[in-house]
């Protein structure tokens, strides 16, 4: 099969991971969730009482943070220094930390290297904030997924409710707004639509329709 790389970027809660996973299954190629890698770095900081906003301390520790991605039945597992942290990285606290460490150049450089390598060795659907702009600038197809912030917060609440986790709409809305602001205004590789990316607003359209649009865009 020819080498395909699909870059999906967009703000928090736009549906990137759900859609990227569906596209990867349809095409039988790897799904790489880069946010999970930033989350693993944040979890390392939390576990080691490192202030993730403290650039110098994070930088000093960055070489001790070993992240591996494993694939089990096409599902990505995140291994942090030998521990499977796939479930532990899914908290709001870790998400906030991931956004903070994502602003640090030492962390971005380390993860960029791993992500570029995955894209060079495999056909992938990769989602994140800087995939079309930095990680896979030569991607076969680039997508920028959006949805109104209210819609994104509503989806996140639904997701948490489905998992039996209590949540508060206004709190989630604020958390998403803060993370978007942080991710789009940082100095290094901010969240931005690549010039050659196709923007898809997912508000009010079904997941299947979005997946079809993306597959139809493949050359
Ligand atoms: O996609 P996510 O919500 O799991 O990402 C968590 C945070 O990680 C996000 O708020 C910013 C950071 N991130 C990043 O800076 N660059 C990426 N390619 C992916 C995520």
Give the spatial strand order of the biggest sheet: 2-6-1-7-8
Integer tally of domains: 1
How is the CATH topology named? Rossmann fold
* Rg from Cα: 16 Å
Count of runs of 4 or more consecutive helical residues: 9
CATH architectural label: 3-Layer(aba) Sandwich
Could you say which overall geometry the principal axes of the C-alpha atoms support? globular
Main pleated-sheet profile:
5 strands, parallel
SSE succession? EHEHHEEEHHEHEHHEH
Give start-end ranges of low-pLDDT stretches. none
Structure class = alpha/beta
Descriptive labels:
17% strand, 49% helix, three-stranded antiparallel β-sheet, 9 helices, 8 strands, alpha/beta, Rossmann fold, binds 2'-deoxycytidine-5'-monophosphate, 219 residues
Structure, described:
The chain is globular, with a radius of gyration of 16 Å. The protein has a 5-stranded parallel beta sheet with strand order 2-6-1-7-8, with helices on both faces. Strands 3-4-5 form a 3-stranded antiparallel beta sheet, covered by helices on one side. The protein has one domain (5-211): 3-Layer(aba) Sandwich (Rossmann fold). Helix content is 49%, strand content 17%. The model has no long low-confidence stretch (mean pLDDT 95). It is α/β, with parallel strands linked by helices and 219 residues long. 2'-deoxycytidine-5'-monophosphate binds at residues 12, 34-35, 38-39, 95, 98-99, 102, 128-130, 179, 183. The site of 2'-deoxycytidine-5'-monophosphate (DC) has 14 residues, from helix 2, helix 4 and helix 8.
